Amino acid sequence: MQTKNRKIKEEELELWKKVTEHDTIIGRYATSVEENIIHQKTSITSKKYKDNLKVKDIERSSFKQDYQINKRMKLKLKRGLIRPETKIDLHGKTLSEAKKSLSHFIKSSINKNIRCILVITGKKKTLNGSKGLIRENLPLWLKETELFNYILFHCYAIKKDGDDGARYILLRKKDKVFYG
Question: Which of the chain's termini has less CB crowding within 10 Å, N or C?
Fold first, then answer.
């Protein structure tokens, strides 16, 4: 049986957009059928595609992490209803010092059976919004393999705990940490 390459109709494209509207979008949708056909003909080995694969791996790791905690627990953490048992302040540290102390703090907290911690990164107010090197790098550090296995979920803190200059981190139980 021979298959014939055919052009995608606009109705099919719109239906596909509706079906995949809740999926994680790595690239972008084509606005017309012609753009979609041109996009299909582009080379897979392009630099943009390789960059998207790296992003996809990071998103996959956060996707797995999100489904290990239920919605109610996430909501409680985001609203500040789960109070942190201990906190660490990373103000005034260099990036490497902050990363080392965060790693040590998380591991020692798990050994003490602490479930929720508050990490204060600080923020610098600018015209474009809040900035700060530690603040911007903290989510990336938490996705790295060294710390990923210790963490269930993390989000910005509520206003009284530091707003977006701090993060709540929900840790795994000591016996549920994978070391692989």
Answer: N
